[in-house]
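INFO worker-7 received task bundle
INFO bundle size: 2
INFO processing item 0
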Amino acid sequence: MAVPKRRVSRSNTRSRRAQWKASAPQLVVCANPACRASHLPHRACPQCGQYGPRAGRRQVIDV
C-alpha cells in the first residue's frame, strides 16, 4: 500500500477542501402535459411514471 511521503499541511488541506461544493441538481419538467412535475433528467417521473415524451411506449410500472 502506498504511503504518503510528507504530511499535508492544514492550509493545503483546507484549500483543497474549499473546492468541494454542493450543487443543486438540474431538474427538468415532465413531458406529460397532464403532469408537468419537475424531476431529474434521464429518470422516470416519480409523479406519473413516464419516461420521455412518448407516453404509450415508455411508461414505467412498479412491480
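INFO item 0 finished
INFO processing item 1
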Amino acid sequence: MGAETLHRLYGPEAEADPTGLYEKLRAEHGAVAPVLVQGDLPAWLVLGHRENLDVARTPSRFSRDPRRWRDMQEGNVPADHPLTPMTAWQPVCHFVDGADHERLRGAVTASLARFDRRGVRRYVKRFADQLIDAFADSGKGDLVTDFAEPLPMLVMTQLVGAPDSYGPRLVEAARDMTRGTATAVASNEYVTLALQELVERKHAAPGRDFTSWLLEDSTSLTDEEIVEHLRLVLIAAFETTANLIASTLRMVLTDRRFRANLSGGHMTLPDALEQVLWDEPPLTTILGRWATGDTVLGDRQIQAGDMLLLGLAGGNVDPQIRPDLSLPVHGNRSHLAFSSGPHECPGQDIGRAIADTGIDTLMTRLPDLELGVQEGELSWSASLMSRRLVSLPVTFTPRGSATTSSSPLPAAKAEPLPPAALPPAPAPAGGGRAAPRASWWARLLRR
C-alpha cells in the first residue's frame, strides 16, 4: 500500500477527531491498521483489544527497545525528529526487556510499594485544598488549569522527596515538554537539572521518599538511571492523571446519566474512574513496540523492525468486546488505559488515589459546581498520544479560602533552581478548619 493512501496520525485530520479517525481505520483495515507518523514514517496502529494484549504481553515478538526500529537503523529518523524525545534510547525500564527490565522495573515497583496509601491521600487532600483556596472566593474557576493539571505534579514532587517549591515550576516545565513548544528543550533541561540536584540532596540526606528508596535499592541503580526514572514517573503521572481528573469532572458536569448513576448509587467514585478509563483513557496511544522478527498480527504481515503503536482508545471500544458502548462497565478493570503485560503502568494505583481523593475533595468543598459555558464551547487539543481537554470553566457559590491549615502554595519561579523546602508554616491562631463536611459523593449517594 502506497504512503499516499495511508492516514496520518498527526496533522489536521488526527488532531480534529482522533477517535473518529481510529474508527475509520478500523472500518478500512480491521484490528491492525497501517498508518503514518511524523515525517510520514510508516507504523502500525493496533485497534483490536485482543491484538493490543497480544503485543503488550509478548515482548519476545514485540520489543520495547527502540533501537530495533528499522527506520532509525536506516537513518530515516534525524536527531531533531519530533518523535526523537520519545524514541531515543535511555536507561529506563520502559525501553528495555528481559533481565535489564526486571532489574530496573524491580527497583521502581519495590520503591513504589513502600508508600503508605493513607499518607499519599493526605498529600492529595492537602494540595487539593490549597489549589481550591486559590479560587474559592471568586465563584468561578477553570478546573483544568486551576486544579487537574497542577494537582498530580504537586503530589508527586512530595512523593519523590522534592521541596514544595519545586512543584509549580515543574508543572510549568512538564506542561511545556509534553506539548512540544519552542521552549520544550529548555524545560527538559530544567527538569533534568532539578532532578540531578534532588538526587545529590538525597545522597547527603535521605528521607522516606521515592528517590531515597531508589538509592537504597539492592539493584544499585546509577544516578543517571535514577534521574531518568524520576523524570519518567513525574511526566507520566502529570499527563495521565491530569487528563483522568479533567475527563471525570467533565463527565460529572455534562453527562446527566453519568451523574444520575452516581447519585442513584449505581456507581461509586472508583467505578466512575474506571468508566472514564474505558471511554476516555488518558493516553489514546502508546509509542511504541518494535517487531523482533517477521510475524503475523491481526492477519497483517509485520516485518522485523516495524514500529507499532498500542491503540488504547481504539482497543477500549473494540466492538468485539463492547458491542454496546452505552452500557456501563461496572468497575471492570480489563481496559487498556494502563497498558498490560510486563510494561503495564506501575504507578496506576497512585494515579487512581490522586484522582479519587482530589475529585472528592473538590466536590466536597464546592458542592454546587456548574459548567460555566455551554458544553459545545468546550475544546480539546490532540497529539499522537493523547487528547486533552483545554479548559473546564465552572461557576459556584463563593466559599471563602480560609478553610485549610496547609501552608499556601509558593509562587512559581523561573530560575535559579528552587531552594530546599522550608518547614511547613504553622496554622494561624484561631484559624482552624471548619468542622469536616461529609463527602460530596457520600451526600450524593444518600439523596
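INFO item 1 finished
INFO post-check item 1: Confidence is low (pLDDT under 50) at residues 402-447.
INFO post-check item 1: The CA atoms of residues 55 and 62 lie 6 Å apart.
INFO worker-7 idle
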